[in-house]
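Blackboard transcription, Thursday session:
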Amino acid sequence: MKEKQDGITVKKADDFSEWYTQAVIKSEFVDYTSVSGGLAFRPDGYFAWEAIQRATDALFKEAGIQNVYFPMFIPERLLAKEKEHVEGFNPEVAWVTHTGDSKLDERLAVRPTSETIMYDSYSKWVRSWRDLPMRYNQWNSVVRWEFKHPTPLLRSREFLWNEGHTAFATREEADAERDVILGIYQRILREFLALPGVVGRKTDYEKFAGAEATFSIEHMLPDGKVVQGPDFHSDGQKFAHAFEIKFIDRSGKTEYAYQNTFAISTRELGVMVGVHGDDRGLVMPPRIARVQVVIVPIYNSETMESVLKEAEVLRKRLEGKFRVIVDSRDVYSPGWKFNEWELRGVPIRMELGARELAERKVVLARRDTGEKIGVALGEADAVVGRMLDEIGESMYKRAADFLAKHTHKVKDYAALKDVVEKGAGFAQAHWCGSHDCEAKIKEETGAKASNMPLDAQRGAEGGRCVYCGKPAAHVVNFARSY
Amino acid sequence: MKEKQDGITVKKADDFSEWYTQAVIKSEFVDYTSVSGGLAFRPDGYFAWEAIQRATDALFKEAGIQNVYFPMFIPERLLAKEKEHVEGFNPEVAWVTHTGDSKLDERLAVRPTSETIMYDSYSKWVRSWRDLPMRYNQWNSVVRWEFKHPTPLLRSREFLWNEGHTAFATREEADAERDVILGIYQRILREFLALPGVVGRKTDYEKFAGAEATFSIEHMLPDGKVVQGPDFHSDGQKFAHAFEIKFIDRSGKTEYAYQNTFAISTRELGVMVGVHGDDRGLVMPPRIARVQVVIVPIYNSETMESVLKEAEVLRKRLEGKFRVIVDSRDVYSPGWKFNEWELRGVPIRMELGARELAERKVVLARRDTGEKIGVALGEADAVVGRMLDEIGESMYKRAADFLAKHTHKVKDYAALKDVVEKGAGFAQAHWCGSHDCEAKIKEETGAKASNMPLDAQRGAEGGRCVYCGKPAAHVVNFARSY
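(Written on the board underneath:)
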């Protein structure tokens, strides 16, 4: 029997960054490839993304959004049409210059995002107020060739995402879409990824290149650093002016459309691994786990036949309701199998041996807490259903508690610096609204303005900027970030 | 009221190529973009692809295939590893040479197909016979920068597809996958696209670059030209040798894996439009139509309220079972609406006016045949269900009849030339198996060997090559192609 296990060799608390890399790679969730910063999503990793993608897509459709698909190449002159947009993306663009042996007349950008190629078409398609709203979305992959050290999922040079691009006749209608979309993203984060997040508005300096305002959901990793999650950009009429997205309104006047953009990406899978994993490996939220239940039969040569037979009966009872497998590989010991499925993060392990069989029961082990309970075989399916729900809820709750505990309201700059230096999470502080103060804080502490939490803004009144002491305009979460 | 309709200005029988382009563009199925040969899939077009994609994906999963995702870039040295493969694709590759302002050390190919980037990983992942079979698939888009005149969907420089890439321990297991996959594709073609096709093996000259054998399903368009549909490649151990995909077999020996590759692409949507459409526009197979039923209310100022109200009641009765909308835009006349929905190919139109209301009935018009029937309002949902099934079946049958009528068994070369010159479809002929004869036929007539239909091969025995008169080895379908 093979007992050696290629497990994680560092503790999450000791070296988060090394732990993280080992966790995503050794669990066979994703793998490196010969392309620097380009990942292979293995079956467990892609399954998780597909689950998120399909659930989000269903909610988008319910909300009236339709899917489309646009080319992955964008001619250079189109990309350059909106000035702030091109300045934001140019340093990261991968350029196609040749096809076969021929040089192209005009370079083609591999899409870093698709505003420019899509809005070029919108300008043809939108003629009258009757053509609006135009609420389109596409699921694809984009390339941003950043020069910082790539980290699997969290900072990949190619990633998978949705990009929603909508156009409305009025600013009011455009603005009304924000809560719908952020609501969908929050629901997906909670129900599928068991992830909390801070909903807020980005500062003008940190907003999306080309947007009027950016709203984001920010996540915190165990090392106290922040990762930006799903976002929603109010573009106003900026792109509409650049791309001539005009229409005849009800009164016969020519108007420019109001637009929004929104996205959720595979980066969420990195956040999920980082937030939920432990020293033994991944801890998968049940709804995105490719395998939800693994039955590990425990037998000797005498009991083998009856135990394997009963394991198969149990599997058949569970399948259809849950994603369940029997690990009957006879070259590995039960202990080896326990380790492997823990590394992969399977939510429930069922142990079935001769002793359990004699008592007509099975042992259920929860991946998230390690808790083990014995259950009558006849009740296994009902208990599994409840337990999977509990695991998801309890993972979310633990993560939400962590986030709350690592959000520190700071009264002065010394306290802000202290929180940031300790890697203790968010330093929530008053801010006057000037980019100077924001820039100084970043320069002196390394902490960026993550976002301005919507539910903390009432506290801005009467406060004073943590840096300059002038009257505060906003409450900001400062933290170091990925 | 606006009566002018931007319909198709040529007849399908008079100028198929011009008709085709007007049909796919004017119906708002797809559109051109600023990228030459790159298409925008509009909601109707992408819906159809998504329906095909999800149905195919479900059948793949039932068959035990798992989804993965690999980078869209392939380093030049990887692409070059399998000699025939790189020679086949090099002339069409889009090359990324720069990112931001920096020149890359090594050029990156935008994937024309993913064998080389995937098999580089397979060689790491496959160690023992226990790791096999490895049956992975991905849904993505690929780029082949052909220099011929692009035709929307039928010849696009970027297209969407699935690419399945599997590895097995033995040739027998690998070969057994062929009928499963071709069976899945035939089922999707029939049930979702209402398309027949000829299943056969490609000649060695026409097979995929790098494969040992290629099997394809070939479609015929109304102009008698052939389009290759889904295909399946038996790669043997060719890529396994090039990429060192080796494993320890049950007896402890090192062996190379046997591999297959298979794909279905958005080109099918072009075939669907070409085969089923008519002078009024698209005719959508019901299962891939974004709108299956359109209710057109017919009213004057007096009857408007009651008719619109009843149309809404009818819509509610049908929704949930069918994809149904009411076209209540009051700026257009009923006739204008009829034209628009016919152009888009909506399978069933329901006409509801005061006269129908008085009789508690509704008129159903079939898009495929133009047939109209009156139905009691209370029976509308049952009749719609049956009618949608009938439309799909009858579209398939008509296309299969066309294919059968345009397959001509030819006894001699003069007859072959006659069929090809008339654009009358397949010239099915005996062939000795030498590339010389195949090449001469192509040179002299413009007809390629489409494939060697599996169900016609018994007829090869005793026959003589249509070109050289030597004993025949195969029966081949010759035709001009897209």
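Lecturer's comment: Chain B touches chain A through 57 residues (CB under 8 Å).
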